[in-house]
Known about the structure:
Number of domains: 2
CATH class of the largest domain: Alpha Beta
Number of helices: 3
Strand order of the largest sheet: 2-3-7-6-5-8
Radius of gyration: 19 Å
Structural class: alpha+beta
Helix content: 10-25%
Strand content: 35-45%
Distance between the termini: 38 Å
CATH architecture of the largest domain: 2-Layer Sandwich
Number of strands: 15
Amino acid sequence: MTEQLYHTDAYLQEFDAAVTAVRAEERAVVLDKTAFYPGGGGQPCDFGSLNVNGVVYVVDKVKKQGDDILHFLGGTSPLPSTGSASRGTLDWARRHKLMRTHTALHVLCGTIFRDYGAQVTGGNMEPLKGHLDFEFETMRGELVREIETAINKEVAQAREIRVNILPRAEAFQIPDLIRTKINLLPEGISHVRTIEIVGLDLQADGGTHVRNTNEVGHIRVADYKSKGAINKRIYIEVE
C-alpha cells in the first residue's frame, strides 16, 4: 500500500521513499509513499523525477492501481531494484497551476450550488483551465457574467481551505457532501477526504488544492455550451 502524502500536504515538493515493487513490463515502480498525485476526479496526474542511487528517472505518468500507486519511468536506464532508497521531486510549477485550477473549479461549483442549487454532472481540467457541467435548463450570457462576478468575489474574500479525513459515517452526516449528480465514492471505503472552502463550500474530494482562495488568481469564464437539455458546460481560465 502506498502512503498518499498529497492527501495531507499538497505543498510537499520533494520526498524520500523506498521502492517496494518493480513492474518491468510497464517500466514502473511502486513506492512506500509518494507526493505524486495519480490523477482522478478530473485532475491529471503529476509529473516530475525520481532519483535512485544517483540515477535520475523522469516520472512521466502516475496511476493508482488498487492500493498501490505506479510511477512510470521514462528513459532507458536500468530500472531500480526493490528496496532501493529514492528521492522524488515534483514538477511543482505544473502542480501548483493544477491546485489553483482545482480550487477555482470548487469556487465555481460552490457558488453555483449556493446561488442556483445546480449539481455537477461532469468536469475536467488542465493547468490553468478547466470546465464543469451543471444541471441547468438554460444558460445565457447575462447569467454567465453574473456567475463570473460572483466567483471572483468569493476568491477576493481570501477564504481558508481546509482538508479533513473523516470516518465514512461521520462524513455522510454532512449535508450535500456529494456535489456530483452521481456518487463517485467507491463502496466500502472507511474514510472520506473532504475539502472545505470556509464559508462557501464543503464536499468530498481527493485532489490537491491551494491553502487560500487568494492563491487562485482571477477566474475568467472563457465560454459556455449546451451539452444537452439540462446539461450546460462552463469553461474557465485562471489568470
